[in-house]
Amino acid sequence: MSTLLQRYNAASSTDVQPVLNDIINGTLISLINPETAHLRDLAGPFTFDQPARAELIQLLLKDLKSSKGRISVKDSALALLALKTLGKNPTGSEALGTAQNLSILLELSASLKDDSEASGEALRCIANALLLIERARLVFVSKEVNGGETCIGLLQKSTNPDQIFILSRILFLSTVHASPFIISLVEEKRNGSTVVDLIGGKLDLLLNNLLSGVKMSKEAMVDILKFTFNILLHYPKSIDTSSSDKKVIGDNWSPKLDPILPPLLRVFHALPPTSPAPVAAPLTHVIHSLITVPVSASLRAEWFGSSPRSSGSSSPKSVPVPVVIPPSPRRTDSSSSSRTHSPTRSGTPTSPRAGPLDRALSVLSAGRRSLSRSPSPIPPSPGSPRHSNKVLGDRDTLLRAHTLLEVAFSHYMPDAIEPDDPSVRELAKSEAGPGAESLDDELSPLVVLITRLCIADETCRTRTRDWLVPADLDRSANAGSLESRSDMLGRCLRMLGSVYHVRLKDSVGEMLYVISDSDATTMSTLFGYGNVAGFLFNKGIMNAPPPPTPAAGSSAALNAAAADNINPITGTAQEQRAPEPEMTQEEKEREMEKLFVVFDRLERSGNISPSQNPIRNAIQKAASAPPAQPKDDDDD
Fold first, then answer.
1. CA distances in angstroms from 619 to 596, 612, 624, 629, listed in the order given
2. How many CA atoms lie within 13 A of 384 on its CB side?
3. Which residue in 36, 86, 483, 522 has the most C-beta neighbors within 10 A?
4. Rounded distance, CA 48 to CA 43, Å?
5. Which residue has the higher pLDDT, 70 or 138?
6. Smallest Cα–Cα separation from 102: which of 74, 78, 127?
């Protein structure tokens, strides 16, 4: 049996197609070793030994580059697909990840630009190599290959979502680690624009395509947002001259990145709800990028809009019908350049059975008032008549984030279910996409975003506090304990006791602490010390803080929670007990006699020594005391 390597060496331009198809489909034995001949029907490109695979890759590249080789122009796409198939194995990617071969693939992508399929396959070969071979990423952006600059140039010209996707994937992999290439991307202009301008334009383009249902728009947006996150994460740290190790994500920033916020917020507000998971890609990737952006003085107008919002502003009770992002079509060939395919968390929008998310949305759309407040609405979808530039110009980022969190909590924890209930973890795992296998991965960044907004703005703190614990919150015993309620407040408090969702628990705790003005007394008063004791203990507050006294400057919610009839442990009202009647002198003497008998028995039985008997000590002290002096009678 001849091998694929031998067959390819013997092939000519007229009969090379069957060999290329066999490499792709793996229908013939491809190992030189005859002992594996029984794998005839299973053998494919993964069964090559290393030398044979590397030799075949070099032959394919040589023939693709040469105009006199075995591969004609019409067979280029097929040959590059075979090359990509061979590169899915780390051994193949090792061969493709050299500076020489990466340069050849870039040249092929440019020379075959009129054949979009062939040009795309060349780029996918590069992406596979960068995914599997880490050192190839630095080689690709080095001056020897200059691949990063080439991809930026292609991305500037591209309007095709499929090409934007693969170029963004390559740039994402090239910027996973900090490098001088990232600094040059931000600080140097290419064709009159920086990478920040480029990303903003592509996000707007892809948003319109996604809302219009253009194929591969969602995948392209996901990967360009991953690339964006790398820029926002690494560039500020690369130019930071301080040696502080205490800075966390979002603490480092550069004004050169300021223009990225408006397009990110446009995407954050315009993306319609997804199904079955309420917070899914690309929305999750937008949130990841947003939490790296500070709420600085220069960006406050972008974060909060031009018109200030009052602390008492509430959302309308009606909820528009959600527009669901449809699932993107999965390509049968290797459309993705890595093992991580496009997210498949979106379900069909016309499902005959109502899932948990549908039930959560129906509850919110019914305008049912929860025990804490009226649920926030889902902001109008971009396809609805209410969506306009005017609406986006006056966007409410805090309301949007809070609504997403409330809908997600209602979806995963309906009614008063415990966060650690197995059904919650099973639902989250079944709906999770790549990189998000739990509620920790999916919802923690959203809570962090809300927390950062509240830290930076007092109005945000007040609004969020009024949404969770309004002044008219029903704290009566008939309404049940705060943590047992089937509303947003109850779900947040139950999350504080979670064992399985550690990061989400800590994030929710920080959010509640921040909206309590970062004050332990305020937090205990609003939510009940028993509900937040564990969180405060982890912050180093070992004992219950002193109860506050209602003051004129305090918020209405705090004054209501600090009322005399509120139990400071539970945060709910308790019945006032009638005062106990004063004991008579005879009752006091009888109680003293009982105590004398009890301690006398303990002493006689040897359980306590005579010196430990408080009754005996009191009698001895009274006997040794000097007699009381009689009072002088001042009356004549």
1. 11, 13, 9, 19
2. 18
3. 86
4. 9
5. 138
6. 127
Instruction: Lowest mean pLDDT of 163-172, 255-264, 363-372, 393-402, name the range.
Output: 363-372
Residue 313, sorted as left (phi over 0), alpha (psi -120 to 50) or beta, turns out to be beta
Distance CA(535)–CA(468), nearest Å, equals 18
**Per-residue pLDDT reduced to its tens digit, 453-487:** 999 999 999 999 999 999 999 998 888 999 999 99
Residue 190: CB atoms within 10 Å: 16
- The tens digit of pLDDT for each residue in 241-273 reads 775 666 777 778 999 999 999 999 999 999 988
Q: Which two tokens stand for residue 68?
A: 């006199």
What six digits make up the tokens of 412?
């995963």
**Which one-letter DSSP state was computed for residue 193?**
B
State the Cα–Cα distance between residues 70 and 590, nearest whole angstrom.
114
How far is 315 from 325, CA to CA, in rounded Å? Answer: 24
The reported pTM is 0.77
Which single residue is written with the structure tokens 């939510």? Answer: 527
pLDDT tier, 334 (very low <50, low <70, confident <90, very high otherwise): very low
Would you give the end-to-end CA distance of the chain in angstroms?
Answer: 139
d(CA 511, CA 321): 29
Is residue 573 classed as helix, strand or coil in its secondary structure? strand
* Residue 167 tokens, joined: 């170029």
Tell me if 302 sits within 8 A of 238, measured CB to CB: no
Amino acid at 143: K
**465 with 526: CB under 8 angstroms?**
yes
User: At residue 588, what is the residue type?
Assistant: K
Residue 32 — φ and ψ, nearest 5°?
Answer: -70, -30
Q: With a cut of 50, say whether residue 606 has pLDDT above it.
A: yes
Residue 246 pLDDT: 65
- Of 461, 559, 555, the closest CA to residue 514 belongs to 461
* Owner of token pair 């202009």: 189
Percent of the chain with pLDDT over 70: 78
Dihedral (Cα; 380, 385, 386, 392), 10-degree rounding: 80
Q: Give the chain's count of helices (H) and strands (E).
A: 29, 0
SS3 of 432-476: the string is CCCCCCCHHHHHHHHHHHHHHHHHHCHHHHHHHHHHHCCCCCCCC
The answer to whether residue 180 scores a pLDDT higher than 80 is yes
Whether residue 360 has pLDDT greater than 80: no
Chain Cα centroid distance, residue 611: 65
Average pLDDT over residues 343-366: 40
* Residue (of 151, 174, 268, 154) closest to 221 by Cα position: 268
The structure tokens 């396809």 sit at 383
Angstrom distance (rounded) from CA 570 to CA 529:
7
How far apart are alpha carbons 152 and 185 in whole angstroms? 9
What is the Cα–Cα distance from 600 to 616, expressed in whole angstroms? Answer: 9
Residues 6+ apart with CB under 8 A from 279: 287, 404, 408, 442, 443, 446
Q: Summarize pLDDT for 512-562 with one digit per residue, the tens.
A: 999 999 999 999 999 999 999 999 999 998 888 887 765 555 677 787 777
Tokens of residue 632, six digits: 């002088």
Degrees, nearest 5: CA angle 390-395-397: 170
Name residue 16's amino acid: V
Question: CA-CA distance, 439 to 416, in Å (whole number)?
Answer: 17
